[in-house]
Amino acid sequence: MNVLIVGGVGGIGQALVTLFNDVGYNVFATYHRTPPSTSNGVWFKCDVTDEDSIVKLAEALPSLDVVINCVGILHTCNAIPEKTIQSFDVDFFKHNIETNTLPTLLLAKHLQTHLKSKHTTYFVALSAKVGSIEDNHLGGWISYRASKAALNMSIKTIAIEWRAKLPRCCVIAFHPGTIDTPLSAPFQPRIPSHQLHQPEWLASKLHQLLNKLEHSDTGQLIDYNGTKLPW
Ligand SMILES: NC(=O)c1ccc[n+]([C@@H]2O[C@H](COP(=O)([O-])OP(=O)(O)OC[C@H]3O[C@@H](n4cnc5c(N)ncnc54)[C@H](OP(=O)(O)O)[C@@H]3O)[C@@H](O)[C@H]2O)c1
């Protein structure tokens, strides 16, 4: 079985590389700026916001059983998520869309043929519950929320198209909960300790979920417990 972990050096990505390697998958993974510190897996340097970089990645990969996109940003060294619309910044908004939405579209475009199979395959994008329009009761974080809402719409749309073209492929947006990684680090003091989980815990939860999901579960936003969330 072949798995591609996109963003394999991130907090969640690293844990997934380790888990899928431990359970016997052939692991392919990408890194961006920081080279991997593990010898597990076959690694490719890839900027997933750049289509040429994804084309080269696709050309180098074999057929795939599972693709998991773990790339994303919530804050940068210059910007934090907006509390109000008055903090809205055009460049930060574009950076959110470019990193949180665009890569999944490019990956779907260039890995479609890799996922065609007679058995069930999985195309998973790490999303976030804050991207759910129906679940938005607090406001704030408008660029991140909008980029994940656009990601969710992308997943739903790809799932509908692939029902005919890749009928065995299960396409889902996945909400990991709050995981102890650099992405969540600035916000962790506000999180009750029982709600903050380690990446290894999450990797195991996602692996268990994929073992349960059928191709007919395609086109959903699903959390770490396997609960379907409203779009
Ligand atoms: N952690 C949480 O609590 C949480 C909650 C909800 C959703 N999520 C989602 O889960 C996903 C993974 O988050 P995480 O917590 O593991 O974050 P993380 O530890 O910050 O990892 C994010 C990874 O994305 C990579 N990346 C950023 N821009 C890239 C680009 N242009 N090309 C390739 N890679 C790029 C980063 O690599 P470089 O540093 O080298 O750029 C980094 O390895 C994200 O989509 C996030 O929105 C996380």
Quick synopsis:
It contains 5 helices and 10 strands. The protein has helices at residues 11-22, 51-60, 90-111, 142-165, 199-212, and strands at residues 2-6, 26-31, 42-45, 66-69, 121-126, 169-175, 178-179, 196-197, 220-223, 228-229.
Please give a handful of descriptors for the protein shown.
single chain, 231 residues, Rossmann fold, two-stranded parallel sheet, 10 strands, 35% helix
Structure write-up:
It comes from Vibrio agarivorans. This is SDR family NAD(P)-dependent oxidoreductase. The chain has 231 residues and is α/β, with parallel strands linked by helices. The protein has one domain: 3-Layer(aba) Sandwich (Rossmann fold). The chain is 35% helix and 18% strand. It contains 5 helices and 10 strands. The strands form 2 sheets. An 8-stranded mixed beta sheet has the order 3-2-1-4-5-6-9-10, with helices on both faces. Strands 7-8 form a two-stranded parallel sheet. Helix 1 links the parallel strand 1 and strand 2. Helix 1 packs across helix 5 and helix 2 runs parallel beside helix 3. It is globular and about 50 Å long. 36% of the residues are buried. The mean pLDDT is 98. The chain binds NADP nicotinamide-adenine-dinucleotide phosphate. NADP nicotinamide-adenine-dinucleotide phosphate (NAP) binds next to helix 1 and strand 7.
